[in-house]
Amino acid sequence: MLPDQSPGRRPGSVLVACGHQRMSEGLRDWLQASFDGVFLVADRASLLAGARRLQPTLVLVDLALAAGRLEALLAELRSLAPHSRALVLSDHDDARADAAALAAGAAGVVHKATLAADLGGAVERALANRPGPPPGAR
Known about the structure:
alpha/beta; 5 helices; 40% helix; globular
């Protein structure tokens, strides 16, 4: 822990890539108490530019930004920010889609419907480099 940090705070930053402004702002408000910086982007190009420039500890990626090409997007993120961990935010409750996201390199998947209950655990597992249970399995 750094001297100016509260006990639950960790060094590093989070890049939130989501096209829904209210959700992005809510995620920022929740995460800024735990990280040095939280940055918001709303499109794929800004996500990739932000990842390259910021080298964030954690990236939250709205599945909608992948436009059906999640594997390619996650591969590009890994090449630009190799030490970042990516969590995928999904509107879908689809075990096959979740498994595909994990196989593509996501550190976890969080369903938007259960975001409040599941995000904290997913962030902790991602940062500890531990795979988590499938979304909704508690």
